[in-house]
Amino acid sequence: MVEPGGDAGLERLLADVAAGRLSAAEALTILRSAPHGTGRHDGASAPAGATRSATAPAATEDLGFARIDHDRLVRLGMPEVVYGAGKTAPQIAGIVASLKTRGHTVLVTRLAEDVWSACRDQLDDGDRAGHYDALARTWTWLPSDAPRPADGDAAVLIVSAGTSDLPVAEEAARTAEAFGQRVERLVDVGVAGIHRLLEQHDTLQRAAVVIVAAGMEGALPSVVAGLVGVPVVAVPTSVGYGASFEGLAALLAMLNSCAAGVTVVNIDNGFGAACAAVRLARSVERHRDGAGA
Description:
By secondary structure, the protein is of the alpha/beta class. The chain has helices spanning 8-19, 24-32, 72-76, 89-101, 113-123, 166-178, 195-198, 201-205, 220-225, 248-255, 270-288; strands spanning 40-41, 54-55, 60-62, 67-69, 82-83, 106-109, 131-133, 138-141, 155-160, 182-187, 207-214, 232-236, 263-264. The protein folds into 3 domains: 8-55, no CATH class; 60-141, no CATH class; 155-288, Rossmann fold, CATH 3.40.50. The strands form 4 sheets. A 5-stranded parallel β-sheet has the order 10-9-11-12-13. Strand 7 (131-133) and strand 8 (138-141) form a beta hairpin. Helix 6 runs parallel beside helix 11. The longest helix has 19 residues, at 270-288. It is globular.
């Protein structure tokens, strides 16, 4: 998100959009092409008659222990996300405060509940503290203008093979929701009782992208990819007995899937699966709406 901040160059750019001299898509291209770390663009790619320069607030913010990438939302359509494991409560609170000041959506992953509680106390946000999901270990805060999915929007479908895969599946779900995607869930439909999955044919068919979290032998993504014609993102989980090697067996099985085109992310990486799914879903939406790539 780029705030005007009283900057004349950015105001001129917005004025060009308002006057019809520049389309919203062209203005977004100008902002995205700004040299990283400066938020500044010389206007070289702007159409004739459009603004020749635009300046945005600083793209990065140095907190001493972290350098916040405020420009990431403009470049990628997704703000910087905080990986909570290994960070102290004061560090996380400082990063979150910085993101909230700029009006960014806040998502912290792999966050223990006691650390979240300490962060909440330090920020003293009261009712504006956001939502903590103990199962997914995520902390989400949405600004008032954050995009909310409509009921008719195509969904990212999160499929978990077993109940033990839910922490990874919910990390994926919470991430996709934080990024404005509509999410549906199918729980405990693994291959040991394949009829449970086949009974959900309609749900599978209306999905825009499917994320499948599975441990043990990791077979479920191959089955799902043989039933749907949309992108399938497979997440191996560390669920299983000794020879599962903490998810390595599932990872190798998914990488060797005979179902064509399955995308595979790292073990237990629900967050990464959701990011891939969101990029895929948005690409489909842009082309469907005629906005181009």
